[in-house]
Amino acid sequence: MQNVTCADFLKELTDYLDATIDESTRAELEDHLAWCHNCYVVCNTTKKTIEIYRDSQLYELPDDLRSRLQTAILAKCATRKKPSAT
Amino acid sequence: MALIETNVKNAATDEMALVHAAKGGDVAAFEQLVKRYDRNIFRIAQHITQNREDAEDVVQDAFLKAYENLEQFQGNSKFYTWLVRIAVNESLMKLRRRRSDRTVSLDEDIETEEDTMPREVADWSPNPEQLYNQGELKDILRKTIQGLPASFRTVFVLRDVEGLSTEETAEALDLSIPAVKSRLLRARLQLRDRLNKYFRKPKGGDAKRDVRGLS
Lengths: 86, 215
Prior knowledge:
The complex is a heterodimer.
Chain A: H1 6-17, H2 23-35, H3 37-55, H4 63-79
Chain B: H1 2-23, H2 27-49, H3 52-68, H4 79-99, H5 113-116, H6 134-146, H7 150-161, H8 166-173, H9 177-199
Helix pairs in contact in B: 1-2, 2-3, 2-4, 3-4, 4-8, 6-9, 7-9, 8-9
């Protein structure tokens, strides 16, 4: 990939961030990052976006609700037809 | 996190034994599987349905459906991936019902040029999450991800929040690997774009506000 453009870089961004990219492509993308401030910013802020969501614990299941749900699920399972062991 | 990951790895070794026992009607074995994954299923369901009651229903319905259909699970994939597939389908049904919108589907693929070309390139403050208190930050993150199309939101949640691999996500959503990658890229870029207004450096800082420099 000669002369990586910003569009090229963005196309590869997901594989770049996930480190699922071959060495030579990675080197070319990093070469682009070294001089392109905009892509550098997009790359860093996208990485940060992922980290913030990963760590955010937006929807944690409260313990009381959790045990209510577990009880309800298992009570219903017990009344359902037993799966056969075949 | 490291402890949780270690536990999950160890747990994988006895998972098939639990599934096998549950297939034979051992509710206690199934209980172990419920306890292992109920938090994940709740998070996924709440992200997709955007509704707490719906998410509670999905947790119950997905596990019940899994229990009743354990025979269908052949062990070609992980039990968790199979369970996620059931939960995603249940969640989408809830979403369609609530929106009386029959078109909600994982196939929706709104492809436009702007999806991959950032509208605004602004550098963020260092540690942007510290600009807000916990409650404010969660509100911002919820509001922002809720604005994504369901198909993008679902791929992002499975890959980046729940940590499924691209292959597992493709399997759980019945999508091709290129489709997962394309949705993930656009979901990530759209979220980043939408978070700009909350996290960018204040005026007078070193923020770059235009995309004219993009080649």
